[in-house]
Design brief:
Blueprint (H helix, E strand, L loop, with lengths): L1 E10 L2 E11 L4 E5 L6 H8 L7 E6 L2 E2 L4 H7 E4 L11 H11 L5 H13 L15 H13 L5 E5 L7 H16 L3 E5 L3 H7 L2 E6 L2 E7 H8 L4 E7 L2 H9 L4 E7 L2 E6 L8 H8 L3 E7 L4 H9 L5
Parallel strand pairs: 3-8, 3-9, 6-7, 7-8
Antiparallel strand pairs: 1-2, 1-4, 4-5, 9-10, 11-13, 11-14, 12-13
Length: about 300
Amino acid sequence: MIEIRDLTKKYGDLFAIKSLDLKLEKGDVFGFIGPNGAGKTTTMRVLATLLNPTWGEAYVCGYSIYTHPKEIRRVIGYMPDFFGVYDDMKVTEYLEFFAAAYRINGPQRRKICNEVLDLVDLGYKRDAFVTSLSRGMTQRLGLARVLLHDPQVLLLDEPASGLDPRARIEIRGLLKELRNMGKTIMVSSHILPELADICNKIGIIERGTLLVNASVEDVMKQVRRQPVLNIAVSGDLEAAARLLEQHDIVESIEPRDEMLVVTIKEDIEDYSDLPTMLIEAGMRLTLFKEDELNLETAFMALTKGITA
């Protein structure tokens, strides 16, 4: 659905994006992560045919950004991080205005507007003025607008930016619903744990260079090659630590908050002997789980060019 080859955009001596290669298949949800100025918005604007690259090629649904920009605009829905709304319009009038721009006419126009309003859970606001909407509602209205023509590909630039926690949860739920509808989605965000929840692929970009392009699981493995376990027992924690130290896969043990933080040696994937060892020694396990590595930690490690 999206294919990028050696895509580069320069402003003087500054590379906004540099030699970017990326391929997304139908149904992929790609989380685009990077600090401000990393090149996320530039990449999306190029894919939306709103900005010409310095060199390189990009295809959306098989159409080249150079030779078929009109066709690309028919199959994408692009939502920028900041977009204008017309305050003197009601919600339905706003959507019908854009539906007319997409050449959706007659009774079908009102039907489609109502359907997308229901999809983004704004049906109860159809007769409200746009100026009366909260920030979260405005973001959902923006999503409704880009869904009017049923695009195959969605380019969403910071859709959760500036939203309160409840509004972020609502946007996340909507993105999951769009994913289930089979849309191919590229979404940039600074709300990193939420991207891990909805995306099957992650890209980390810094200074215009794509550092990582992989599944969420592979990104986590790249950052942490040593499992870290949280273990607790009812009884003598020190005795449990002494017992675990004897196993050759254990690299270090650190007591913390009435549990043991056990670091396993690099590239060891099977540590199932450890709970068996404790139970056979007569200890009762109350906690045994791998310490979760979140996407924020991965981002901080990889954008510094290190692994942890």
